[in-house]
Amino acid sequence: MSAIGLQLQKSIGGVINTDDNVLFETVLSNFGDVSYDSGTGVITIGQPGRYFINWWVATQSALGDNAVIFSIVTSQDEDIPGNTPLKTGEVAGFALIQADTAPVTLSLVNKTASPVAYTTLMAEKAHLVLGQLEEIAGGATGATGVTGATGTPGITGASGTTGATGATGTGTTGATGLTGATGSIGNTGATGATGPNFADAGFSAFRSSFSVTGDTQITNWSVAAPYYGSASFNPTTGNFTAPAAETYSLKATISYATVATVTVTIPSGQNPAFAIQRTSPTATTLVNGLMPLINVNVALVLNLRTLIGNGTVTLAGDVELNEGDVLGLFYVSAGVTINISLGGGGTGLVWSVHRLT
Fold first, then answer.
1. Which of 34, 64, 78, 170 has the greatest number of beta carbons closer than 10 A?
2. Is the pTM of this model over 0.85?
């Protein structure tokens, strides 16, 4: 089965209406059984498989008080959103879909309750990458055994002597030569090693909302359907242990809300964040995402630097891990003691890790 990949770019600005598809004008890369219609914004995948999509849209403004929401919508009735509470900035998201039958179509759709204007500050307005995740089969077939040697042909018997002239003499037929021995059968080739199983090194987990005030590793995940676990992930501790030295895709979506009205100012230099960290053998931050702050200084009236009341932080990155590396998802308070509900508003948290090679 050939690999599938698609990379799209949008450079033309303007306004996109509610429920309209994002129209990418430029195809940067396209290989395998996948196509894109720039007139409708629809992507068509022509063969079954497992696919991941990363995307972002840079926005300038939107009408009303609503947050900006874009979503991957498929012909399999999937609607996978990404959102931001800010009208100006970048909204990003990702999706992992399983196409059991083909073709499957999908598009990036504006799900905001009002039209959204693309940014005027950047040449590139939106970007989307689609790729196929390899589903590796079992071990290779062993090599064919050596063919046995061919037996030596038997010796041909001598011809009989011709009878004397007169009555026709009949010569005696010589005896048939012996059949050569059958060559021995070659040894059976050894069975190839079992190939890696993608599902053993990947998981997608959900965590319902809970409150924190300081540095916290997020634990007690659920891998019940539609989410799924693997032998490498411990839902109770929240630890993922890399089963092999490979390249891995890390993703997390964390919504939050302040539990009460914020009455304190956060000092400069304190920047609370969410991070995917390697905890063993060496503590390392692999992917980091700052929580959105508001920073206002009105002379003689107001000086305020504090958290926005609610929002969503998206983490995504590909890293190389060694066998035995341990990863976790963390809230990093940076000394801020504000009571925060992670997964606030009932949206929860989603975290996933998948091996790419």
1. 34
2. no
- Cis link prior to 267 (omega < 30° from 0)? no
